[in-house]
Amino acid sequence: MLKKSPPRARAKPKAKAKVRPAKARPKARPAKVAVAAPRAAEQLVEAMEELAVAREELSRLGHELTASHRQNEDRKLSSESAEDNLRSQMLALREELRTALAELEISRNEIERLRTKIVQYEAASASKKPVGSSPSV
């Protein structure tokens, strides 16, 4: 048999929000407003002047920064080009040294060849009889 479940508790109806009376706002005093308006205008003018000065300073600093970046890039490029120039001069000097060494080796070989020719000539002339030593005189 089916048992009946106990009846559920019904939710209580929500209470209506209480309406609070609006707080009375203090009335603005026209005399102070009139005095505050010129003071606020002065402050606004001063703030705008300070902003203009700050913008000029920021612009000047931006131009200086750009100029210094350009100088750094120019220095870097000039140092790179100077480095490239030195490198090419060094390579040219190496080639000149290689050429000089090759010429030196050629000269040494030529000197050695001439020495052997001289030795051969001296040996050949020593083995020959001297020209005025014949017995027929």
Q: Helices and strands in order, then pairings?
A:
Layout: H1 30-127
Can you tag this structure with a few keywords?
elongated, 137 residues, mainly alpha
Largest sheet: none
Rg, Cα atoms, Å: 56 Å
Tell me the number of helical segments per DSSP (H or I, 4 or more residues long).
Answer: 1
Helix/strand-derived category reads mainly alpha
What is the element string, with H for helices and E for strands?
H
Q: Strand percentage, roughly?
A: under 5%
Distance N terminus to C terminus?
175 Å
Number of strands: 0
Note the quaternary state here. single chain
Instruction: Average the pLDDT over all residues and give the rounded result.
Output: 81
* Helix content bin: over 70%
Poorly predicted runs are none
